[in-house]
Design a protein that fits this description.
Blueprint lengths: L1 H19 L24 E5 L2 E5 L6 E3 L2 H9 L4 E5 L14 H9 L3 E4 L6 H6 L4 E5 L10 H7 L2 E4 L6 H12 L2 H19 L9 E6 L5 E3 L5 H8 L25 H7 L5 E5 L6 H6 L8 H4 L3 E5 L7 H14 L3
Parallel strand pairs: 3-4, 3-6, 4-5, 6-7, 8-10, 10-11
Antiparallel strand pairs: 1-2, 8-9
């Protein structure tokens, strides 16, 4: 029973965060109000974002992240982050509620917990005396309803990560923090690294589909514009999503819902299937042992693999760890 409760808690938390990244909101645009802001050192600058318009007078020196989904991006560009909100402790996090892909970096840099369990705490944020707050505009870590109160503490920028890659998120955050050069260097370094890693892979049978397996509740397959699909494509995989006619509404954005009854038909063209481990356990075994999926070619040919827990929410750190897992799974 305890394991079941943990799985349900993990699924609820992860689903809330996933929904934040899969709504239909268009990517935020960041613009500069002053000509001097064309430079990465141009201050003040005005940022147009999901919750409005924010003027930042000086380059931030004390940043608080009100969205764990963005903390990895801030860490990757060496932003002056002092504290972050923490997620509930699940298989996706360490004991602090830090996502596993960047937890070690956050601990090493002494990043403090602003508040736990995604329960927004304005007083806790205020105690860190931030000069910039970065938050999410939707999903489980949304701060939209508290935008005005947050703005009274410090300039606040809320970003929607719907229909947007981790690279684009990093670029948007860099514009609000004045770290455009660092972001560009980090992304360029990653792109070159991925090219090098792709040469080390011997591809399994193609085409490939990736999904989150939810047991009796069905699956959430990723479409071709999802970060997970784009990561696989960058390594040379021929990504093919689940058949659209068998998808039902429920997740929207870059993730569809495939009921257990429709899964066999929706996934029959995939020679290789990746499962994203959202709630821990052994998603490959669980998926492969589903009686309704027994005749899938990917199962009968033993071509079902995990993309790991880190691949659920991709940022610089989790993308690299996912690529490393794939290279180790399919070495030449």
């Amino acid at each position: 029973m305890a394991r079941r409760l943990l799985t349900l808690a993990a699924a609820a938390t992860a689903a809330a965060l996933l929904l934040a990244g899969c709504s239909s909101t268009a990517p935020d645009k960041v613009t500069e109000a002053d000509p001097a802001a064309e430079s990465s050192e141009g201050w003040p600058r005005t940022v147009e974002h999901a919750a409005g318009s924010t003027t930042i007078d000086e380059k931030p020196l004390r940043i608080v992240s009100a969205a764990p989904s963005f903390t990895g991006a801030l860490l990757s560009i060496d932003a002056p982050l002092v504290a972050t909100a923490a997620a509930p402790v699940t298989p996706l996090t360490d004991d602090n509620g830090f996502f596993t892909q960047w937890a070690d970096v956050a601990v090493e840099r002494g990043i403090e917990i602003a508040y736990k369990d995604l329960e927004l705490d304005l007083d806790a944020i205020d105690q860190f005396e931030p000069d910039l707050i970065i938050g999410s505009a939707s999903g489980g870590d949304s701060a939209t309803d508290a935008y005005e109160q947050l703005s009274e503490i410090a300039p606040t920028v809320l970003i929607s990560y719907a229909d947007i890659t981790w690279q684009e998120i990093t670029e948007q955050i860099s514009e609000a923090t004045g770290l455009e050069t660092e972001a560009a260097e980090r992304i360029a370094e990653y792109d070159q690294w991925v090219t090098d890693q792709a040469a080390k892979i011997k591809l399994p049978p193609q085409p490939t589909t990736a999904l989150i397996y939810m047991g009796p509740e069905g699956s959430w397959p990723f479409n071709v514009e999802s970060p997970q699909a784009m990561l696989l494509s960058s390594l040379g995989f021929d990504y093919q999503p689940a058949k659209e006619e068998f998808l039902s509404e429920g997740q929207g954005g870059r993730v569809g819902t495939l009921t257990s009854e429709n899964a066999a038909a929706g996934l029959e063209d995939a020679a290789t299937i990746f499962t994203v481990a959202m709630t821990g356990g052994d998603p490959v075994t669980d998926f492969s042992n589903d009686a309704l999926l027994a005749n899938l070619p990917a199962i009968t040919n033993d071509q079902v693999y995990t993309m790991g827990t880190d691949s659920f929410r991709l940022d610089y750190y989790s993308a690299k760890r996912t690529v490393e897992l794939l290279v180790n799974t399919f070495p030449k």
